[in-house]
């Protein structure tokens, strides 16, 4: 894709702080550095988001996440945890439309990063939960 910033980074047209590269993926520091070591892992093949992945590409890309995660952990032994995030579509905070995985090291509760999971359990009956599960299961089995 000619106008994609991540494709340009992969093709070395735009500089980056590369941490890993092989024939399928390219990993580099996120320029925002939400926390020290915040890394992005992108497939070299342009796919917009998770919905465009073929199974083989998904396996190849996601299989590299632990390798890069372990490298970050070894590089920063003071790290206390790691968030792995993949945003898909604008409403879900995707801002660059070339699929990418964020690896965000966590050093303490005062990091400039947070995630909030609301608890809406009381809004759904057991029957509604079963119906939601059935709808998804039917689609998975197609």
TrEMBL record:
SUPFAM superfamilies, sorted: HIT-like
Transmembrane segments: none
Listed GO biological process terms: nucleotide metabolic process
Short motif (Histidine triad motif): ranges: 98-102
Family matches, as InterPro entries: HINT (IPR039384), Histidine_triad_CS (IPR019808), Histidine_triad_HIT (IPR001310), HIT-like (IPR011146), HIT-like_sf (IPR036265)
Gene3D superfamilies for the chain: HIT-like (3.30.428.10)
Domain of life: Bacteria
Active-site residues (renumbered): 100
Domain named HIT: residues: 5-115
CDD domains: HINT_subgroup (cd01277)
Gene Ontology MF terms: catalytic activity
Pfam family, one: HIT
Protein name per UniProt: HIT family protein
UniProt organism field: Enterococcus caccae ATCC BAA-1240
Taxonomic placement: Bacteria, Bacillati, Bacillota, Bacilli, Lactobacillales
């Amino acid at each position: 894709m000619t106008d994609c910033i991540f494709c340009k980074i992969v093709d070395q047209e735009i500089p980056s702080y590369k941490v890993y590269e092989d024939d399928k993926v390219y990993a580099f520091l996120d320029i925002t550095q939400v926390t020290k070591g915040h890394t992005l892992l992108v497939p070299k093949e342009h796919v917009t988001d998770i919905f465009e992945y073929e199974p083989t590409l998904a396996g190849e890309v996601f299989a590299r996440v632990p390798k890069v995660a372990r490298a970050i952990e070894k590089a920063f032994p003071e790290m206390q945890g790691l968030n792995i995030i993949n945003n898909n579509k604008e409403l879900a905070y995707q801002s660059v439309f070339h699929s990418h995985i964020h690896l965000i090291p966590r050093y303490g509760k005062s990091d400039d990063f947070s995630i909030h999971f609301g608890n809406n359990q009381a809004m759904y009956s057991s029957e509604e939960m079963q119906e939601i599960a059935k709808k998804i299961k039917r689609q998975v089995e197609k």
